[in-house]
Amino acid sequence: MSGALDARVVVAHAGVDARIELAPGEVLAVMGPSGAGKTTLLDAIAGLTRLDGGHVSIDGVRLADARQHMPPSRRAIGLLGQDALLFPHMSAAGNIAFAAQSAGSSRDEARAIAEEWMPRIGLPGLGDRRPDRLSGGQRQRVALARALAARPRLLLLDEPFSSLDVLAAAQLREVVRDHLQGTTTIVVSHTLADAEALADRLLILEHGRITQHGTLPEVLESPASDFTAAVAASR
């Protein structure tokens, strides 16, 4: 089942010490300076690294702690990193269809889902192209559609619009916002526009620690650090 889950994360790993609780269907934005530990946090939740301490739990089921480690393939957590990492031997539509089929759709249903996604991400008519015939921005769009088509229980987005121009990023934010309804999500970004368009809450991570969190107005109207003040000033 996708979305609508309760997630509790207490990560103590590689210089990151953070406690996060997500309500079912909530979208949390995480912002912080470079090197703050944002990607490390997502990797720990996804299972790409073992925890030194803390734990990751979803719907009351512990996925990882310092003693146990559930493999990423069993967590039903989707992670879209800053690199597209598409399957090079598959077409753009094939990449998306693979994710949909892995989530339980039949082959025909998966193909139909992929066909629907191509125009939604601004790539009509390019479904047959393999990744090496797509630009970097186009590959990122396909990777984003693949992540969403998999209908993960928890979706992790790490700078999902970083390789897109301003107009394309704005258009895709609308697509993602509509599709995320009911899907519990953490989105890491350096761009306030991503948080404003997608998130219910904003968390500031600095030097591996949470320095502030709350709704966007709460955080931006009363910044607790120079970094948050700079973010607020960028509005």
UniProtKB/TrEMBL annotation:
Protein name stated in the entry: ATP-binding cassette domain-containing protein
Source species taxonomy: Bacteria, Bacillati, Actinomycetota, Actinomycetes, Micrococcales
TM stretches of this protein: none
GO molecular function list: ATP binding
UniProt cross-references to InterPro entries, sorted A to Z: AAA+_ATPase, ABC_SmlMolc_Importer, ABC_transporter-like_ATP-bd, ABC_transporter-like_CS, P-loop_NTPase
Organism: Microbacterium bandirmense
Residue ranges occupied by any ABC transporter domain in the UniProt entry: 5-232
Keywords: ATP-binding, Nucleotide-binding, Transport
Domain of life, per lineage: Bacteria
